[in-house]
Design brief:
Blueprint lengths: L3 E2 L3 H20 L5 E6 L4 H17 L2 E6 L6 H13 L5 E4 L9 H4 L14 H8 L8 H12 L8 E5 L6 H10 L3 E5 L7 H4 L4 E4 L17 E4 L3 E2 L5 E2 L4 H4 L5 E2 L6 H29 L1
Parallel strand pairs: 1-11, 2-3, 2-4, 5-6, 5-7, 7-8, 8-11
Antiparallel strand pairs: 9-10
């Protein structure tokens, strides 16, 4: 059978255009949305990604400040910078980019990002709000999966959706977003048992485990729509997902590519979240002034 390729590039372009249009509207009102990205690594692939965010922000009319603190930055320095950015009125969105220096944990640091500026849903408060249906930014990667499913009109209400991976960055928030769309959600992890037991009967399979080639053709069926969230760098520098694309192609109904799938949509959503954060912060300021 032919496996449809669900490319994210077209959708990413549409989202970037939305961000640009909204940024121009805000700028006409005297507010230029601004994003701050905190980096503390000498990993070149990370710096390449951050530069791509900077270029995309510039095209969308969004200010982007890169704070490179060096690969030996301490947790105290990082915490201080995040607190200052959270209090800075001209900064609307904050990203703490990983990886971090050895011995520095993101778990504590993300708590210093103000929830209203937490455009990548890293602060535990954001996940808690998401869980109870209160306004919050979902992690951009998790929302990217939902946007792709919506864009390609893949139904999830009442459908069997399996999420492979239970991280706080993708698996857990994505399961909450899917539940909000009335999907029947199963989350698989390293102790779930044979993976195919869950994935073969599924209508939609989302793989976000960080393991190259984890999902193969034997794990899916002809009705399966497979969303590959994995981003694994091989020794030759090429990027692959968690899905063994060669064996899944021709078996599953549809598959997102890596690269060119979820990742491209994720970057566009970070820009849109920044604009949305700027608009809400402006409205909050007006309400506070009026009160």
């Amino acid at each position: 059978m032919n496996t449809a390729v669900l490319s994210g590039k077209g959708l990413a372009g549409l989202i970037q255009q939305r961000a640009q249009d909204q940024a121009r509207l805000l700028e006409s009102e005297g507010l230029r949305p601004s994003l701050a990205v905190v980096v503390a690594t000498d990993d070149e692939s990370t710096h390449w990604y951050v530069r791509s965010i900077e270029r995309a922000a510039e095209r969308a009319g969004i200010g982007c400040r890169i704070l490179d603190l060096g690969h030996d930055a301490t947790e105290q320095v990082l915490a201080s910078v995040l607190k200052d950015l959270s209090a800075e009125p001209t900064v609307n969105g904050i990203i703490l980019q990983t990886p971090l220096p050895a011995g520095v944990s993101a778990d504590e640091l993300v708590g210093h990002i103000a929830p209203e500026k937490d455009i990548d849903g890293a602060n535990p408060l954001s996940l808690g709000r998401l869980a109870v249906g209160q306004p919050a930014f979902a992690p951009a990667t998790a929302r990217a999966v939902i946007e792709l499913l919506d864009h390609f009109e893949v139904p999830v209400a009442g459908r069997n959706v399996v999420v492979v991976g239970r991280s706080a960055v993708v698996g857990k928030p994505l399961s909450l977003l899917l539940l909000a769309k009335d999907a029947a959600v199963t989350v698989c992890h390293s102790r779930s048992g044979p993976l195919e037991t869950y994935t073969r009967p599924a209508d939609v399979v989302v793989v976000a485990a960080g393991r190259t080639g984890l999902l193969t053709g034997s794990h899916v069926s002809p009705k399966s729509v497979v969303i590959d969230v994995g981003t694994n760098v091989l020794a030759d520098g090429s990027l692959v997902g968690d899905v063994d694309e060669a064996s899944v192609t021709g078996v599953a109904a549809a598959l997102t590519p890596v690269p060119g799938g979820v990742g491209s949509v994720t970057t566009a959503l970070l820009l849109l979240h920044t604009v949305e954060a700027a608009r809400e912060q402006s409205r909050s300021l007006v309400r506070a002034t009026a009160g």
